[in-house]
Amino acid sequence: MRQAVKLGVVSALFLFAGGVLLSSCQKAAQSSRSPSTSAKVAAPAPTDAPSGGKSIEKVYHLSTDSQDEHGEVIFNHEGHAGNASYSADGKTLMGCTECHHTSQPKSALKPPDKTSTSDTPLTLTAFQGGQQVQNCRTCHFQDGNVPDGKEMPQASYTVDGNAVTKDMNNQLAYHINCNTCHDAALAARPELKSKAGFAGSKDCMVCHKKN
Question: Which CATH architecture has domain 59-210?
Fold first, then answer.
């Protein structure tokens, strides 16, 4: 009787171990056939930001799904929006439309900006009163992640005195917006070069974390 019980227990253990081994083999086979899930993939275009009395985050994490070695950027929204020292001249408080360029009348747009989604300029008061704010990726998509029925916007601008036309993807739109202002600030105030945390257009890893 004891031998029968022992035999039953051993058989059950063998069956359990076999099931675990089979499951592991199946998972390994599936992994070998499909791409690694650890690789970063392009995220779908986000929806517009909430509006109507919503609070605004002090800090935003940008490029969290970056596709290259330049990782996310911690963007101090509170400083850029509420501190005049963050502007190019260090004296003039930046308006919301400096970055949120679609949230202003078409007559106020400056090249290469083309799209207007509002007849009134965006302000904090307007936002809290219900004015909607578009997320950058509403228009500026990641390469390879353009939604069906949409097109990547293009823009013509000057680089080193030469006119160029490029797809204004998410990465390029961010860099033109940020670098233009940072380089203007550096030209006006060279002492910023030695300020911790300040970056010119060639100081990539001051802003970016490395992936």
Answer: Alpha-Beta Complex (3.90)
What are the structural domain ranges in the chain?
A: 1-39, 59-210
Beta strands in the chain (DSSP E): 59-62, 70-76, 154-159, 162-167, 208-210
Average pLDDT, rounded, for the chain: 79
> How does pLDDT run across 41-88, given as a tens digit for each residue?
444 444 444 444 567 889 999 989 887 889 999 999 999 999 999 999
Cα–Cα dist 130/120, whole Å: 12
34-42, Cβ contacts within 8 angstroms, sequence gap of 24 or more: 40/65, 40/66, 40/67, 40/211, 41/65, 42/67, 42/142, 42/143, 42/144, 42/145
CA distance 72 to 61: 6
DSSP string, 73-99: EEEEHHHHHH-GGGSSSSSSPPPGGGT
Summarised one tens digit per residue, pLDDT across range 149-201 is 999 999 888 888 999 999 999 999 999 999 999 999 999 999 999 999 999 99
Task: Please tell me the distance from the alpha carbon of residue 191 to that of residue 137, in angstroms, as a whole number.
Answer: 34
Q: Considering the entire predicted model, what is its pTM?
A: 0.70
Q: How many residues does the chain have?
A: 211
Cβ 52 vs Cβ 130: under 8 Å:
yes
Cα 37 from Cα 75, distance rounded (Å)? 28
